Amino acid sequence: MADDFELDTDDLSRRMDGAISSLRTEFASLRTGRASGSMLEPIMVDAYGSPTPINQVGTVNVPEPRMVTINVWDKGLVNKVEKAIRESGLGINPQMNGTIIMLPIPELNEERRRELTKVAAQYAEHCRVAVRNLRRDGMDKIKKAKADGLSEDDQKFWEQEVQDLTNAYIAKVDEALETKQAEIMQV
């Protein structure tokens, strides 16, 4: 009856890729002492009555290694963009020049670098939990198939497939974390 059972490992893999992608987005928002336009992605500006990403109200550029500029298209939104950056918790003091907002990226001190590595570790742990939850979903499907008549050998085979996939993705998370922590600690 369940001899034709086949777990959709491609679906599990795709969902685990989504968790890794989300982790990379979270890592991009961490400030490393180097300018990056992606650090502004999570910031929303109250534009035209609704929260809008900064890159939809102006052009974000990185002209120098320690400078991000935003050329706001609508003069009426310049103050709102500046306010959103100040309140974002990035620790950056915006400087206004007409419709251009300049964000000088200060050097990170040792204490702040250590704090950021801890934040990166928390992001990585959330991603590991997401991957493990997907593993559990796969294992639950295998158990259900076992109850429907899947042989014990097939059950062990599929469980090993899911575990191997999980181990591979946990290793990717660990590798991404090591890379990000090295980037943060680099002076």
Automatic annotation (TrEMBL):
User: Which UniProt keywords are present, listed alphabetically?
Assistant: Cytoplasm, Protein biosynthesis
For this UniProt entry, the molecular function terms from Gene Ontology, in alphabetical order, are: ribosomal large subunit binding
Pfam families the record matches = RRF
Q: Which domain of life is it from?
A: Bacteria
Extract the signal peptide range. none
Quote the InterPro entries the UniProt record gives. Answer: Ribosome_recyc_fac, Ribosome_recyc_fac_dom, RRF_sf
List cellular component terms (GO): cytosol
Q: Which SUPFAM superfamilies match?
A: Ribosome recycling factor, RRF
What GO terms in the biological process aspect are recorded for it?
cytoplasmic translational termination
**Location(s) in or outside the cell:** Cytoplasm
Coiled-coil ranges (or none): none
Q: Where is the Ribosome recycling factor domain?
A: 23-185
> What biological function has been recorded for the protein in this entry?
Responsible for the release of ribosomes from messenger RNA at the termination of protein biosynthesis. May increase the efficiency of translation by recycling ribosomes from one round of translation to another.
- Which family does the UniProt entry place this protein in? Belongs to the RRF family.
Q: What is this protein called?
A: Ribosome-recycling factor
